[in-house]
């Protein structure tokens, strides 16, 4: 499915021509102007939302009010004076009216027709409306929109203040004209609308029909009480937002069900090996881990392939859960593939898997691009013959030459680093295999539900016990010497290790004032950190050098590792308790959070120091401050969504699903939850829709 941005449509009972030019006052010229604003037909016109609402005075006294709320008025007045200059003169035709003591000047700069002014001379009263200009002492209206010369005092107009929609200013299309066109379109279309939101859902969320909503939004009914209008408008808006979310969620759910209805996933029901593996873990699973494991194990036993997104902060123990599921799948006679975005991470998972599965009769292999061609070929052969049970690797796993005997379960770690096509390429290697996508970049729920709406969510919030939260300090560059000295001392006193993170590998003229890993490592090693062991790690090193450095750091042969963001994913060295991030203003919140996750992996107190540059923007300062104030990735994700919008969450941009015409993922998060639940119930029935409820979310 391709959900386009701004997803919303008005559905008609039967085909109806809805061309703009059918409306009075809309000719080809105006049509063109509207089309330039993507308003192609009458339905689109109805979805044009007013920019604001303007109070207009519909009463003589209203002139006083109109002074406070300048704008459009309707009034009556006694004709005091008519000035009708000769037609050759440039002077305007002028009528001065006395509207309850307030003199109003009505002006026509081009006499509309000869003898135009005569009607006012013979009139006693004038009824008029138009835009009031208060720039002079007394109000004037140039070219009143309506006027009526009368010989008797007309009835008083409705004494209420009224509200009038003000639309986006469009060159050459006045608001009056838009209002009239919208009124006409409403008359034709609104009675013929099919409401896609069932009545029972409208009732349960106290939302009206789409017709009612649009009537409110365009002020098509007189307003009884302007003070209540605000609330009514909110309700009307919610109605459109809900429909927008609901429609999207219906499609996502249908896609989700469709894809799996006919599928025959391998039913992995033998949990013996899984239980044994969990027993062998050097720790007890947290409650969240247990609950997610139980849910995933159920998924694995189903004929419908699992499609899960497992979210959990760095270090929350997702991998342990994934390995337990791996054991269930292998114990049930199927192969498992685990894909990671970098060699480093794949290697690390591989090492851990070897250790964990040591006493089991399980064949484990690593498949990355750094193997030789013939080594890769050999692994591929053993995968195809079924000799290997568990393959860990990188993109190399889904290259064409790789085939599996019976691939039952796929784990994609740091899934936001992969595209959908890459995930699909790996899925195609098996017959309806189960899929577990994992991410340590917490994504606000509302966003996850749209961008990844075709996946079920599972969340681990709780951290394993014994972790102390990382203390984070925001410091300026001039404090750097103190920070370095602190690190140096702590390395000597406790033997603990530190990461120094830089945005650049080497200094660059293009981005001055940013610290770089190579240069800083050198100056640290020759200066403030001369008596500790400094290492360096960045993406431009060859694989062998990278691995050497990583294992040296892991073995404690390096005290301080100067690195770029290559350490962002995966590095798991629990003796590293200090992190210094240089030029932190360059990084987004979620990336900073990922980085910080490298420390705080033991019971020792961990710290993270941000050494901010001199010219911090207010935005950056706020971001860094929020970051220092909390360690909770989900909280930060909400802040990040608010500050920078959905686009910066990796992997979201490409989906295009995070953009709405009416809805807002932050403000309307609750409506989205409702819409999602309703849509799932609608498509899957009550029981299945619950599959992601409960604490695991
Ligand atoms: P994630 O993949 O979510 O970042 P990991 O699974 O790599 O987290 O776990 C991070 C660290 O915490 C690992 O060293 C792991 O052994 C350890 N760990 C995981 N679960 C627990 C637990 N329940 N109790 C104690 N330590 C745990
Ligand atoms: Mg991990």
Descriptive notes:
Residues 1-5 and 693-697 have low confidence and may be disordered. The protein is elongated. With 697 residues, the chain is α/β, with parallel strands linked by helices. 41% of the residues are buried. 37% of the residues lie in helices and 18% in strands. It folds into four domains: 3-51 and 169-246, no CATH class; 54-166, Beta Barrel (OB fold (Dihydrolipoamide Acetyltransferase, E2P)); 272-460, P-loop containing nucleotide triphosphate hydrolases (Rossmann fold); 470-631, Rossmann fold, CATH 3.40.50. It contains 23 helices and 23 strands. The strands form five sheets. A seven-stranded parallel beta sheet has the order 13-14-12-15-16-11-17, sandwiched between helices. It has a six-stranded mixed beta sheet with strand order 7-5-4-3-6-8. α8 (226-261) packs across α22 and α9 (272-280) runs antiparallel to α11 (318-331).
């Amino acid at each position: 499915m391709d959900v386009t941005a701004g997803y919303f449509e008005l559905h008609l009972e039967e085909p109806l021509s809805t061309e703009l030019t059918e409306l009075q006052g809309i000719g080809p010229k105006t049509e063109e102007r509207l089309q330039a604003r993507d308003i192609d037909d009458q339905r689109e016109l109805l979805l044009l939302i007013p920019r604001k609402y303007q109070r207009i005075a519909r009463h003589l006294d209203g002139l006083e009010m109109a002074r406070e709320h300048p704008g459009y008025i309707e009034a009556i007045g006694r004709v005091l004076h008519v000035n009708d200059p000769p037609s050759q003169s440039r002077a305007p035709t002028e009528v001065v009216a006395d509207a309850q003591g307030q003199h109003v000047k009505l002006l026509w700069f081009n006499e509309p027709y000869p003898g135009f002014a005569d009607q006012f001379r013979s009139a006693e009263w004038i009824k008029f409306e138009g835009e009031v200009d208060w720039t002079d002492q007394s109000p004037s209206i140039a070219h009143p929109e309506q006027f009526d010369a009368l010989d008797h005092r007309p009835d008083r107009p409705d004494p209420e203040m009224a509200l009038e929609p003000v639309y986006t200013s469009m060159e050459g299309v006045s608001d009056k004209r838009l209002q009239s066109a919208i009124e006409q379109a409403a008359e034709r279309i609104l009675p013929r609308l099919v409401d896609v939101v069932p009545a029972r859902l409208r009732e349960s969320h106290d939302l009206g029909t789409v017709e009612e909503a649009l009537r409110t939004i365009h002020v098509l009914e007189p307003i009884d009480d302007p003070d209540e209008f605000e609330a009514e408008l909110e309700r009307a808006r919610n109605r459109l937002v809900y429909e927008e979310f609901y429609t999207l969620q219906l499609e996502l759910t249908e896609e989700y069900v469709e894809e799996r209805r006919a599928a025959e996933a391998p039913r992995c029901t033998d949990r013996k090996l899984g239980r044994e593996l969990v027993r062998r873990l050097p720790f007890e699973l947290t409650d969240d881990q247990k609950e997610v494991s139980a849910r995933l194990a159920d998924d694995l036993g189903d004929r419908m392939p699992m499609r899960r997104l497992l979210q959990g902060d760095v270090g929350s123990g997702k991998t342990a859960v994934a390995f337990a599921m791996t054991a269930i799948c292998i114990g049930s006679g199927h192969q498992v593939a685990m894909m990671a975005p970098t060699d480093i991470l794949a290697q690390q998972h591989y090492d851990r898997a070897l250790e964990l599965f040591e006493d089991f009769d399980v064949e484990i292999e690593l498949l990355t691009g750094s193997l030789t061609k013939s080594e890769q070929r050999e692994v591929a052969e053993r995968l195809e013959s079924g000799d290997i049970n568990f393959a860990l690797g990188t993109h190399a796993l889904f290259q064409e030459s790789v085939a599996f005997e019976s691939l039952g379960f796929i784990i994609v770690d740091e899934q936001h680093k992969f595209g959908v096509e890459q995930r699909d390429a790996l899925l195609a290697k098996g017959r309806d295999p189960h899929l577990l996508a994992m991410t340590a970049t917490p994504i606000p729920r509302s966003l996850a539900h749209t961008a990844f709406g075709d996946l079920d969510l599972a969340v681990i919030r709780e951290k394993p016990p014994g972790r102390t939260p990382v203390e984070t300090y925001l410091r300026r560059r001039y404090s750097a010497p103190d920070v370095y000295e602190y690190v140096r001392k702590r390395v000597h006193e406790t033997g603990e290790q530190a990461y120094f993170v830089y945005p650049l590998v080497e200094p660059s003229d293009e981005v001055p004032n940013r610290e770089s890993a190579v240069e800083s490592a050198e100056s640290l090693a020759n200066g403030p950190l001369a008596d500790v062991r400094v290492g360096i790690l960045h993406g431009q090193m060859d694989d062998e050098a990278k691995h050497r450095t990583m294992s040296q750091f892991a073995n404690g042969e390096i005290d301080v590792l100067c690195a770029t963001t290559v350490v962002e994913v995966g590095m798991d060295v629990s003796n590293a308790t200090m992190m210094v991030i240089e030029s932190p203003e360059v990084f987004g919140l979620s990336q900073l959070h990922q980085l910080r996750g490298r420390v705080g992996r033991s019971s020792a107190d961990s710290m993270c120091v941000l050494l901010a540059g001199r010219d911090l923007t207010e935005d950056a300062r706020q971001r860094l401050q929020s970051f220092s104030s909390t360690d909770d990735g989900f909280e930060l994700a909400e802040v990040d969504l608010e500050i920078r919008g959905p686009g910066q969450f990796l992997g979201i941009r490409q989906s295009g699903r995070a953009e709405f015409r009416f809805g807002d993922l932050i403000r309307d998060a609750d409506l989205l939850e409702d819409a999602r639940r309703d849509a799932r119930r609608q498509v899957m029935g009550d029981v299945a829709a619950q599959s992601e409820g409960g604490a695991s979310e």
